[in-house]
Design brief:
single chain; elongated; two-stranded antiparallel sheet; five-stranded parallel β-sheet; 49% helix
């Protein structure tokens, strides 16, 4: 059955996993009509998930609103389906991604089912998994198995000692495999309980966010371990990632020449890409939640109209093709400078350009900030900024400001 249309016209407060009382996280209203995309994914995955287990990679570059989308989607899904949200980045301090994921899934499902505590049976299995997944090749384990303190070993280890260690590792692996199978069954039981008790629909949705922000070794280990629970019937997994960044993390672990794209293809049935914001939309959204400082009149062009700053930032970031991450960082720097008390006006366009230059060509930026390059408009003089810029296509730009517009009240002519 198709879900009713999602209404994301108004901002909402995040009340899902990780929400902190007294520290409100407001999810803004939908300005890019992404509610329709969420509806499509919901109906598509619900149909697929009823037939089989399904794993989807939701790809979006940094700044495209991936986490916002996942959280708003979660708040819609939980009204109709058993739903779990996991922020992988907040949990990458753990040494065992598998235990972390399974524990989070079960904890959220039992809460949704209205069960105050884990059953003794389930607690025992989680304890078995924790014990089995503890670091196994350690000095402590070797001493426990063989009775030998490896720091005191002066001779070659005997075959009998090695045999004891191998037998212990084999037993730990078997225990871990058995525990994972039992816990997968337990997850399925919780899902069925919620569907029956809370009158929700199948399948269950497990949303895992921020995997690409985790340290590379943890991200790869999580992929390698959680694949063992991907095959739970009636459960849909959605891994939201900046897939390009995740591929970089994989190459850190396996080497630059490793085929990370093909590697990721082993884990997912499909990959959908969240449509990216235009840079202008991205900047507009940032400026809406950041108040202009009181000293905004001490800049040029005068910011009588809030759109003026939008025009300046958009023009420079478009000209120099800044990434969304770089653009947001530069906006923060601009606002910081504008908040400082001053007697003379600051040229906002040039300041924005210098901040962009810091990201695009630090050596050229240093020449300006250190005073090694003159501001004189002489392209033939090698000691001027104008000359250096004329040699670099990636840091050159043209901005024309029309008279009597919201961006300023001066006439600018090409010389």
């Amino acid at each position: 059955m198709a879900v009713a249309p999602f209404n994301w016209d108004d901002a909402v407060q995040w009340d899902g996993p990780g929400a902190i009382a007294g520290s409100e996280e407001i999810l803004s209203a939908d300005r890019l009509d992404r509610a329709r995309y969420a509806e499509f994914l919901t109906n598509y995955l619900a149909a697929e998930g009823k037939q089989r287990n399904y794993v989807l990679n939701l790809n979006a570059e940094w700044g495209a609103g991936k986490t916002w989308f996942i959280k708003r989607w979660y708040m819609e899904l939980k009204a109709h389906y058993p739903t779990v949200y996991i922020d992988a980045w907040q949990q990458d301090f753990s040494d065992d991604p598998l235990l972390t994921v399974i524990s989070s899934i079960i904890e959220q499902l039992k809460e949704e089912a209205g069960s105050p505590q884990l059953s003794p049976y389930l607690s025992t299995k989680l304890a078995s998994l924790l014990k089995a997944t503890a670091p196994i090749v350690t000095k402590a384990l070797f001493k426990k198995v063989s009775g030998i303190n490896i720091d005191e070993v002066q001779e070659v280890i005997t075959a009998d000692d090695a045999g004891k260690l191998v037998e212990s590792l084999f037993q730990d692996t078997r225990k871990k495999t058995e525990a994972v199978q039992l816990l997968k069954h337990e997850i399925q039981q919780w899902v069925e309980a919620i569907i029956g008790k809370k009158k929700k629909q199948a399948p269950a949705f497990i949303l895992i966010d921020e995997l690409d922000r985790c340290r590379p070794s943890y991200a790869v280990e999580m992929l390698e371990t959680i694949k063992h629970i991907f095959d739970i019937p009636g459960v849909v997994f959605v891994l939201a990632t900046d897939t390009e960044q995740l591929q970089h993390a994989i190459k850190v672990v396996y080497g630059e020449g490793f085929d990370a794209q093909n590697y990721l293809g082993r884990f997912f049935q499909r990959r959908f890409t969240l449509n990216r914001k235009s840079r202008r939309e991205f900047i507009s959204n940032i400026l809406e939640v950041r108040r202009l400082p009181n000293g905004s009149n001490m800049v040029w062009p005068t910011l009588n109209n809030p759109r003026a700053l939008l025009e300046v930032v958009t023009a420079v970031s478009d000209s120099l093709e800044l990434s969304l991450r770089q653009t947001e960082q530069i906006i923060d720097r601009l606002l910081f400078v504008m908040r400082k008390p001053r007697r003379r006006k600051v040229n906002l366009v040039f300041l924005m350009y210098l901040f962009a230059l810091h990201e695009k060509d630090y050596q050229l930026y240093s020449g300006v900030s250190d005073g090694a390059l003159s501001y004189a408009q002489d392209k033939l003089n090698e000691k001027t900024l104008a000359h250096k810029i004329s040699l670099k296509k990636d840091v050159a730009m043209d901005i024309f400001i029309r008279a009597n517009t919201e961006i300023g009240s001066v006439v600018s002519r090409a010389q």
